[in-house]
Amino acid sequence: MRLLPSMFTAQSAVPTFSGLTTVPPKQGLYPTLSGSQLSKARTEALAAELNTLYQSVMDSLGAEDARYIQRVYTTVVYSEVLARGLLAVAGRLSSRRRIVATWLLGTSLLSFSKILNNMELGHNVMHGQYDWMQHPHLNSKQFDWDIVCPAPLWQHSHNYLHHTYTNIVGRDHDVGYHLIRVTDEQPWVPEDRYNLLSTAGLALGFEWAVAFHDIQISTDEYADSPDLHNIMQQKSRALFAKIGRQVGKDYIALPALAAVTMGRRSGISTLSGNFTANIARNIWTWAVIFCGHFTEQAHIYTHLDANESKGDWYVRQILGSSNIQGSKWFHLLTGNLSHQIEHHIFPDMPARHYARIAPQVQAICQKYGLSYNTGRFGRQFKQVIGRIKHFSKPSVEEWQAHLQAQSNLPAHTNNVVEPKDEPLMRGLSKYLPPVVQNALFYAK
User: Fold this and answer.
1) Do β-strands 374-376 and 300-301 pair in parallel, antiparallel, or remain unpaired?
2) pLDDT in tens, 278-307
3) What distance in Å separates the CA atoms of residue 154 and residue 242, rounded to the nearest whole number?
4) Where does the Fatty acid desaturase domain start and stop, copy by copy (predicted)?
5) How far apart, in whole angstroms, are the C-alpha atoms of residue 116 and residue 274?
6) Which entry of 107, 120, 317, 345 is 20 to 30 Å from 300 by CA?
7) 3-state secondary structure the chain
8) For residue range 56-112, what is the model confidence (pLDDT) as tens digits?
């Protein structure tokens, strides 16, 4: 089994492959490809144009970009401080109307701060977009964001795996996050009937899914390594330490501080505001990510040829991504992941430049006959929900195969749950999802 690099090494999203053959895609919605749509000569020409565009932007980086990301950081800090102050004050007010209004204002501002921290600041800084500044903490090795997932675990599953093997079933674990069926290449199982319900749960707890995502991936990826236990212990302990800090801050320390200094009602308003802001951030992040990857025309790939070139990689990134149209503020709140196509071809380019180069990228796509998938948020979101609903149902062949498999099972095994390979836990922990059980086991 292929082993992955150490989680504490920042991984580049630039691939190292070179040449796929042209294979015609499936027609209609939810296309699946097994190779590049362009000839080798055309992919090389495409790569040359995109490389030139990339270099022109990277050569222009300077003081203005540094000021921009520092302003974003300052906005995150001050908006969080102000929001938490409003939430504490809300508990001291006597008028119900004023309590509700102040709480809503504080919660909205805290949601804004957390979204900005997660998207435009954390995601982009941890991609190495500002490493050239050599800033003491606004760099991919030092910065950590305000969610329960530690930066190194996310960088391994996202920067390395997702951006290298984008939309390749079995290699890119972001294809459905091991929960949602989004392509025919994922075998249908009865649990897929609850695709929409699973998606709602994923949206509400998205930061938790992201946090445990790398644990689930790494348990399989390092399965044949003699260092499996040490690697997983390191990852699991880092994860639970980060969870402890985040949960302790939002749900224990800050509410307790507000209660002690301003009264019990301030503690309750702070606790409820923190919880609501985290949920709002989770739902928003999930929506932006899914609209950027799982619209009707977002292409899925069946395999990766070992000789994939940089041009072929560019094509796969373009066809596997979707943009979302919107205002300048909308793009800011998405971390410019509303320009998902530009982000996937240039992941280490400061995201504030994506809007400026988008027309040039679109023109290059048109020149080479590649679809440039973009649309308003409502349209893209509707397509995502439609895709999730579509793949919750089996085809006639899949349903017949399922019935046949069920009929072939011995009667005494129909309701027996086979023991799994992952370590089992005792007590209440045995009711936790297997990935959480694994993390607890290795954290010891």
Assistant:
1) unpaired
2) 999 999 999 999 999 999 999 999 888 778
3) 12
4) 102-374
5) 15
6) 120
7) CCCCCCCCCCCCCCCCCCCCCECCCCCCCCCEECCECCCHHHHHHHHHHHHHHHHHHHCCCCHHHHHHHHHHHHHHHHHHHHHHHHHHHHCCCCCHHHHHHHHHHHHHHHHHHHHHHHHHHHHHHHCCCCHHHCCCCCCCCCCCCCCCCCHHHHHHHHHHHHHHCCCECCCCCCCHHHCCCCCCCCCCCHHHHHHHHHHHHHHHCHHHHHHHHHHHHHHHHCCCCCCHHHHHHHHHHHHHHHHHHHHHHHHHHHHHHHHHHHCHHHHHHHHHHHHHHHHHHHHHHHHHHHHCCCCCCCCEECCCCCCCCHHHHHHHHHHCCCEEECCHHHHHHCCCHHHHHHHHHCCCCCHHHHHHHHHHHHHHHHHCCCCCCEEEHHHHHHHHHHHHHHCCCCCHHHHHHHHHHHHHCCHHHCCCCCCCCCCCCCHHHHHCCHHHHHHHHHHC
8) 999 999 999 999 999 999 999 999 999 999 999 999 998 999 999 999 999 999 999
Write out the two tokens for 230.
Answer: 């040490």
- Assess contact for 17 and 309: CB atoms under 8 A: yes
Residue 186: other Cβ atoms inside 10 A = 17
pTM of the model: 0.88
Judged on CB neighbours under 10 Å (0-12, 13-18, 19+), 307 is exposed
What CA–CA distance (Å, rounded) separates 442 from 196? 32
CA-to-CA distance for 223 and 213, rounded, in angstroms? 16
User: What sign does the dihedral 40-45-49-52 (CA atoms) show?
Assistant: positive
Give the Å distances, CA to CA, from 49 to 18, 38, 52, 311, 341.
Answer: 17, 15, 5, 10, 15
Strand partners, 36: 22
- What are the residues whose beta carbons fall under 8 Å from the beta carbon of 28, sequence distance 6 or more? none
Distance from C-alpha of 202 to C-alpha of 283, rounded to nearest angstrom:
9
What residues are paired with 22 via a beta bridge? 36
